[in-house]
Specification:
Helix content is 62%, strand content 0%. It is mainly α. The longest helix has 30 residues. The protein is globular and about 55 Å long. The mean pLDDT is 94. GO terms for molecular function: endopeptidase activity.
């Protein structure tokens, strides 16, 4: 669990979650949420730095490139779109845990959208978060449950237990827990089916990118 290979996939995820906890704590202590918006940029910068430090350890990002066929890429994009539709639909009260404030990029004074904040948010959500989360949830945890020497576990060897545990934990990582479970199941299926992490990363990126566009268009900031 604490080998360099494990640490390389755990550290960026823990850093990301840690910043969420710090932001929540500061908000509880009365720091206005508007003043905490730029913490997201710091969070993404820290995760990017950790990914860069451990980049040579991510052998799964260099292998199985033959699986990146036009069909696989098309399925990934289609899956990402379907997950987005379900994500904004599975929002009944019983499908949620808590009520997050979300990420509101509008100015408290003028009400205008801060487009730099929006750009940082969408970049982080679409380019960094899918890479960080898929390295942790699919590449590490799902395979580690099968065998501690997870790097030698082929994605197709994932068991029902390893998939179920990963999907459930991934789901409850999110406020919209049912939507999270559906997304986790979809991304896990892609990983097992195509045996390359790039396919679920792409699907995850499509979901997050389009969600960002939808949130900005509709003003439903709580989805962020």
């Amino acid at each position: 669990m604490f080998s360099r290979a494990s640490l390389a996939r755990i550290a960026p995820f823990v850093a990301y979650i840690g910043f969420i906890a710090v932001t929540d704590l500061l908000e509880r202590f009365g720091v206005p949420l508007q003043e905490l918006r730029w913490l997201y940029a710091v969070r993404i910068a820290v995760v990017m730095a950790l990914l860069a430090v451990f980049w040579r350890d991510y052998d799964e990002l260099r292998g199985e490139r033959g699986a990146l066929t036009p069909t696989a890429l098309g399925v990934a994009v289609a899956t990402g779109i379907v997950v987005l539709v379900l994500w904004v639909s599975l929002n009944a009260s019983w499908m949620q845990v808590g009520s997050p404030s979300g990420f509101n990029p509008t100015s408290a004074d003028s009400g205008q959208i801060d487009w730099l904040l929006v750009t940082v948010r969408i970049f982080g959500a679409a380019a960094i978060v899918p890479l960080m989360e898929e390295l942790f949830w699919r590449s590490f945890l799902m395979r580690w449950i099968v065998a501690p020497d997870f790097r030698n576990v082929d994605p197709a060897q994932a068991t029902l237990k390893s998939i179920a545990v990963t999907v459930l934990l991934f789901g409850f990582e999110h406020n919209l827990w049912l939507a999270g479970i559906v997304a986790g199941a979809a991304y896990s299926w892609l990983y097992v089916r195509y045996r390359t992490l790039w396919i679920p990363i792409l699907a995850h990126a499509v979901t997050n990118f389009l969600l960002g566009i939808w949130v900005v268009h509709t003003g439903h900031w709580h989805y962020w």
